[in-house]
Amino acid sequence: MQTPTQKDRRKLNADASTIIPLTTGIGRLMAIGKHNGATHERIGSVNNVTIADGRARLEGPAHSAVVDLAQVNSITADFSAAMGEKAMPRLDFLNSSGEPVFSIVALDGRDGFDRAFSAVPAEPLTDGVEPARPERRELAKDDPGFLVLDTIRQSGEPVELRLERPGFTQTWEGIVERVSDGMGFANVMTESFHLHLRGGSVARWNWDNDASRLVALNAEGEPIGLSIRGSASALSALGADGTTL
């Protein structure tokens, strides 16, 4: 499959178990999971992909993700994005409803992408309807998502930030050095990881059974897919219901 010179979208005529291992050949990439207001991104090269028991595992110093292959119904490639003169091809792994299970953006341009996917058959897609973007709102000073992330930052202790959605789980482990407020989101950003948590997505946090894992809940009391695991000292500044003391 050669990347076309004009902007367009294409359907890849291959299954996820064929496509995902090819990502080891495209250089630096961003693996993106989104669910209920949380966007979880890992950034770097994928060193290895293991296919076993109906799942694909993306592995590397900057990657730790598991894909349920049965949840991926189709795969599209979008060539419209660019940063300056550099093309940034995007792969969307879609479920049966046409929603992304997860996405991959190639960060090193088109050449590596073309080499990796040259043998993959594809067909043009007509322009789809852009999904409606949620209304942007200011991040409230008492936003539970921001407050807990900032409390974790103040602890200086390493934590695990995990996103789980149907068909996709991705984790990051490290020290949260900075939490910023921008564009209505609480943002954690490192060289190999970005978390963007939309303001208002988290109404409260709840302890998991083992009391070392906080689960983000929405206003209806439902998990949004984001959780935080850490040591007792990392979470000691949080109340039993997951709110800051």
UniProtKB/TrEMBL annotation:
Superkingdom to which the source organism belongs: Bacteria
Q: Which InterPro entries match?
A: Heme_Transport_Util_sf
What name goes with this protein?
Haemin-degrading HemS/ChuX domain-containing protein
Organism for this UniProt entry? Aureimonas fodinaquatilis
